[in-house]
Write a structure and sequence with these properties.
By secondary structure, the protein is mainly alpha-helical. It has one domain. Helices cover about 65% and strands about 0% of the residues. A two-stranded antiparallel ribbon has the order 1-2. Helix 6 packs across helix 17. About 5% of the residues have low confidence.
Amino acid sequence: MVDMEVAKRGLRRIVRWEYFWLLLIVIATLVVHFVIINNPAEAVFDEQHYVKDARLILAGEGSERVEHPPLGKLIVAFGMYLFGDKPFGWRIFPIAFGTAGIILFYLICRELEMSRRTSTLATFLLATENLTFIQASIGMLDVFSVTLMLALFYSYLKKNYPIMAVFMCLAVLAKVTAALSFPAIGLHWLLFRRDRSLHFALSLFLSWLLFVMLFLLLDSIIFRKIIDPFYELGRLYSMSGSLTFENATHPFASRPWVWVIIPYLVPYWYIPHYTGSVSFGLWGAIIPTFAYLGYWAWKRSPAEVFGFLWFFSTFLLWIPLDLITDRITYPYYFYPSIGAICIGLGIILNNFIHFWQVKRSGKRRWLAITAVTLFLLAHIGIFVTLSPITDYWKFPIPEAAPATTTLEITSEAIPESN
């Protein structure tokens, strides 16, 4: 009997540990990642372009993907160098970065003064969100830039501005679109902090200086010779700027405002199905959650303020940028904004839970219980349906492709995006 009581107390201590539920979430997602890591054995969606580029880098032939900065491409190549030119090598570092992103997101929530339960709910929503999971499952650049963006946010919230500057640099070195996260930091600092102005400004300058230096170093590693960073940056800008709706076509190209109006199903692969789409439940909650964040941001609630600025910076700014530049964009560009919606949804769900804990009886209590339970079950169901862990959802296979789709056929069936 005494041993039983000791065991119960020990179990309670474990469950009450700050990171217990986070650890379970991380372990569960890692298990699923490693179950599917080698399936399919071919490169998925744009993974085929970065795997091909990594092969060129490892062979000493430079890079064809000059429209992207060097860091993300080198990470994919390094995985292949360590573990071989096979799916495990292509995907191991995206999985590692995706897992680190889940941990960083939880730490961000806690730094925003969200309770442990609210932070856990938000992290659970993010980890089991389909697009977040898929981007962390394949060798594309986006997971590197988003995870480094989260590290940037966390170091900023901790007021460690020099480290923030390093992550600002690294995030853009992974993919240029990470620069859209910078206005969130700048606006938050201007509106709510304005501390250590010289220190903050010097950190921003350090970020730019470090970017140029690392761009030179990393591109020199790729091309195996000293390169002119400003010339290569000019090529990057020119190539990326030429990808407009006017002179480029892609079946999944779409304007940013459409992403929150129409739920896109973007097939990255057919069997098993990799679906590059925001989970439907979370997608349906985007507009009301943003409105909720905006209302409480006006009242200066810390988490809602940061979530609002995060969403504004990484998504809403795409709209004027798209109108000005006509830059071709894709639904998975919404990926960096998902964390902001998860923060808002986590807070809303926790408010429902608090309501049913306070209300001992009555219809509204049961309505709150039912709403939270159904939403979480639906979220998990959608994740299982859309993700490769089940073939419940089947995309029609193009007529040109047999049941076992090859890389060459996929290159025709699914054109390149960026």
